[in-house]
Design a protein that fits this description.
8% of the residues lie in helices and 40% in strands. By secondary structure, it is mostly beta strands. The chain has one domain: M1 Pyruvate Kinase, Domain 3. A 7-stranded mixed β-barrel has the order 1-13-12-17-15-14-19. Strands 5-11-10-9 form a 4-stranded antiparallel beta sheet. Strands 4-3-18 form a 3-stranded antiparallel beta sheet, with no helix packed on it. Strand 7 and strand 8 form a beta hairpin. The longest helix has 11 residues. It is globular and about 55 Å long. The model has no long low-confidence stretch (mean pLDDT 96).
Length: 275
């Protein structure tokens, strides 16, 4: 088998906004540092995402020293920033799918900026350090916790999986549609489906569940325009149990710096899903 290397690392500090490509990152209990530590919620405390509000894709997030900066991709003058540690008021209930967790509002003027952008009342909240949102018990092995991500601390996708998909598409797409944390090079398309346990550096990972895909991947991350692809094409060869799968959700043990170029050491394999 080809050697497998980590070729890209991404974090998405504010859930469903533009991600940041890194050369290295620290992996913590909840996942990569700063990944999905903030989320926008509506007046009922329910998270919002590109699934319903594709215009969120046009908001690019960067972290500069101790400050989070959000900039509109088409108008750099349309910008808001706040300190990483900034927060006000008491804890607020936050609903992520079937999970109930909590967050603390960053600042009123920050929430107002996002509310004006979306033309609806929203708040930007941060996950407090003491929050304890656990991974689905059906897949957890050690009471793992997760940030505001959909359900798991990390997601991995092989570059060969995207290359294979693009060979079937009229208009190739970028990896940013799939919002992975880790991209790997080497191996056949969807080799990540066969991973059971592996290590990157000193951190142990388990691939516990294939990632089911929704309409979010039909949003062009540069234009916010939705189309039928790539869901239409993926449905022709990546459907399993009536769901379209692309990438693997991960759990991990340990905390360390992970860098682009590190080799994945596969300890055990499982049967690839039949699609």
């Amino acid at each position: 088998m080809d050697k497998l290397y980590l070729s890209a690392i991404y974090i998405y500090p504010i859930k469903s906004l533009g991600g940041i490509k890194l050369e290295e990152s620290i992996i913590e209990d909840r996942g990569l540092k700063y990944d999905r530590r903030w989320v926008l919620i509506d007046s009922e405390g329910v998270f919002i995402s590109q699934r319903k509000y594709p215009q969120l894709s046009l908001l690019q997030v960067n972290i500069i020293d101790d400050t989070v900066v959000v900039t509109h991709k088409e108008n750099s003058q349309h910008q808001i920033s706040f300190l990483i540690e900034q927060q006000i008021g008491d804890s607020i209930s936050v609903t992520i799918w079937d999970d109930l967790t909590n967050g603390i509002e960053v600042a009123e003027h920050v929430s107002t900026w996002f509310s004006n952008y979306l033309n609806m009342a929203v708040k930007l909240v941060k996950m407090p350090e003491l929050a304890h949102r656990t991974v689905d018990k059906k897949y957890a092995t050690n009471n793992e916790i997760v940030s505001f991500a959909d359900g798991y601390p990390c997601l991995i996708i092989g570059q060969s999986a995207l290359d294979n998909l693009n060979s079937k598409l009229k208009d190739p797409i970028k990896m940013d549609r799939f919002r992975p944390n880790f991209v790997i090079t080497g191996g056949e398309p969807h080799i990540e489906d066969s991973f059971k346990d592996f290590t990157i550096g000193e951190v142990s990972f388990s691939a516990v569940k294939p990632c089911a895909r929704c309409v979010l991947i039909t949003v062009d991350q540069q234009t916010a325009i939705k189309s039928a692809e790539p869901l239409k094409t993926l449905s022709s060869y990546r459907t399993w149990n009536h769901k379209i799968m692309f990438g693997q959700n991960l759990l991990h043990q340990g905390s360390d710096i992970i860098r682009v170029g590190m080799e994945l050491k596969i300890n055990t394999f499982k049967e690839k899903i039949c699609v």
